[in-house]
Amino acid sequence: MLSVCSWLRYNKLKMKVKEIFAKTVLTKTGITSFDYCINPYVGCQHGCRYCYAGFMKRFTGHLEPWGEFVDVKVNASQVLRKQLKRAKPGRVCVSSVTDPYQPLEKNYRLTRGCLEALSEVQFPVDILTRSPLCLRDLNLFKQFKEIDVGFSIGTHDEKIKKLFEPHSPSIASRIEALKILHQAGVSTYAFIGPMLPLDPRSLVAMLDGAVDEVLIDRMNYPNKVKAIYRREKLDSYLEENYFHIFGTELKKQFEQKGISVTMIL
Q1: What angle do CA 214, 39, 21 make, to 5 degrees?
Q2: Is residue 127 a part of any domain in this protein?
Q3: Could you tell me what percentage of the chain is helix, strand and coil, using 3-state DSSP and rounding each to the nearest 5?
Q4: pLDDT digits over 159-176, tens only?
Q5: Is the peptide bond before 95 cis (omega within 30 degrees of 0)?
Q6: Do the domain assignments include residue 10?
Q7: C-alpha triplet 72, 74, 78: angle, nearest 5°
């Protein structure tokens, strides 16, 4: 059910924003690490070129390209509270097909509302974002007995970041946010995935003292970004050996610093 439709400008990109009413928010997931997932938004303003979540478009009725629209589930926290009354305790991923702290969250505060509901029942939570906006909710994170907050950081290089994630926050701002969370006693992790062109030593040095754990994953959607790799003469970074050689080096260097690493093979 649609209540409001509007357009806004975001980094020179015209973004269609709809306010919708959701019937469900807490969804069971087949991901082994989680029992549930919550996505307060459909679509994402960050517009990452490699994004796997484009399949969600078929459920929306949108004609706009993926990355140029966001549906806002304005009743997310109210629906979640009703679902939590019947749900068995389990670990919740926030979010699986959107960024819970994309710029719209600053005003809509849907992610915060959902976290407030989850804190009341103390379901374990795992948050993954690219945005330092999550620091706004640091006081709320501390109310959880079990919570992990992670940032997607696929490279150490801001120029590479801009090629593949043109509208996302800077790497420097993400790492600074991780350090603040880590120093505040929140369990933090970095998701180096998809692993973009990077220098292992530089990225390890940047994340030193900021994370408890690291997850490393390859570029699983190369067809989406082959043109970028070819245009920028980065073809060698799509080869299988790149992931194994550089991923193994990352793992080795992080573990030397006492940081737990999981490589998703």
Answers
A1: 170
A2: yes
A3: 40, 25, 40
A4: 999 999 999 999 999 999
A5: yes
A6: no
A7: 140
Spell out where the chain has E strands. 2-10, 13-20, 26-28, 36-38, 41-42, 69-73, 92-94, 125-129, 147-152, 187-192, 213-217, 260-264
Average pLDDT, the chain: 91
Identify the pLDDT of residue 57: 61
Q: Give the contacts of 223 (CB within 8 A, at least 6 positions apart).
A: none
Task: Give me 17's structure tokens.
Answer: 């924003």
d(CA 47, CA 204): 26
Instruction: Categorize the per-residue pLDDT at 100 as very low, low, confident or very high, splitting at 50, 70 and 90.
Output: very high
pLDDT in tens, 178-199: 999 999 999 999 999 999 999 9
CATH number, domain of 238, equals 3.80.30.30
Helix (H/G/I), strand (E/B), else coil: 200: helix
Name the pLDDT band for 12 (thresholds 50, 70, 90).
very low
**Total number of residues shown for the chain:** 265
Radius of gyration of the chain (CA): 18
Rounded to whole angstroms, the Cα distance separating 43 from 12 reads 17
The answer to whether residue 54 is domain-embedded is no
Q: Give burial (CB, 10 Å; 0-12/13-18/19+) of 100.
A: buried
Burial of 183 (0-12, 13-18, 19+ CB in 10 A): exposed
Structural domain boundaries, residue 241: 21-39+74-264
Question: Considering the entire predicted model, what is its pTM?
Answer: 0.91
Which amino acid appears at position 184 of this protein?
A
Contacts of 163 (CB under 8 A, 6+ apart): 49, 228, 232
